[in-house]
Each structure stands twice: as C-alpha cells, then as structure tokens.
Amino acid sequence: MHVLVLNIRQIPGPQPSRIYKNVVPEMPRIRERAGKTYTYVIPRLDGTVILGGIRDPDISNTKVDLEVDKDIARRVNKTLPEHFSADPADYDIVGHNVGIRPYRSTGMRIEKEVKEGQNIVHAYGITGGGYIFGFGVAREAAGLVDEFLFPAGKARL
C-alpha cells in the first residue's frame, strides 16, 4: 500500500465553511474497477485526504517512491478529475505511508493447530483488509484460544 496524505484545503473546488464531526457526505457515485492496482480517496476529520492504491504482492520495500505518488495522483485524477489534479506538486503533501500487508494467495488463515506440543492460533493474511476485518478476525482468534484454554467449553451460569 502506498498513500499520499493531502491537506483538504488544497483541493480545488468548494470548501466547507465549517467542519463537523460525524458528518456523512453523500457520495454521488462509487466507482470500482478490476485490475492489478486499486485507487481510493479517504477524507479525514483532521482536514487531510488520503489518496492511495497500489497492490504489489512481490515488493517488500518500504521506501517512498515518488513515481508511485505520481501514478496514484494520475489515477485519482482520472476517476475524479473535477476534484484532484494529476500532479502531486499541486498539493501540500503532509505525509507518506507505505505499508507491507501480509497476504496469502489462498486467502486469510484463521485456524488453530498443535505443533510440537505447542498450541498455536494463526490469524494472518488479511492484506489491506485489516481495518475492515480486524474485529471479526480478533473475535474468531479469541474463540480459538478459548477452545484451547477451555476444551470442555466455558461454564454458563
């Protein structure tokens, strides 16, 4: 994952006169396309916007790549040209995030096993879905730990 964090006040177009917490804006459209890369725009309450989207499972380099920034800006502009320039130089970039997301070609692994006498609970391979799936994965993993700790089941009083 590679993202640009922009100051929302630098984005062309109407600016909010006030910023309120817990406001859900109407999305006139959501676009989804299939392919190797994906693109997203996430406005944040602190006035910044995250532009992101690259998926390359064979790269483990965490250094910022300015060519990737340009590609993300170009793709965001292609999707929302009325709001975003294709040139990252047009924005006040306040940060970069480069994340390595563990993945498995066969999908998430959430299971328990006993190996060499050790009880092991596996919960990984979520890729970029950790934010979305995190609580469900944690609940499932906790249930598997409970199965190790309480093999006869928990007492219900």
UniProtKB/TrEMBL annotation:
GO terms for cellular component: cytoplasm. The keyword Oxidoreductase applies. Transmembrane segments: none annotated. Its cofactor is FAD. Residues 32-142 form the FAD dependent oxidoreductase domain. GO terms for molecular function: D-amino-acid oxidase activity; FAD binding. Belongs to the DAMOX/DASOX family. This is FAD dependent oxidoreductase domain-containing protein. It comes from Bionectria ochroleuca (Gliocladium roseum).
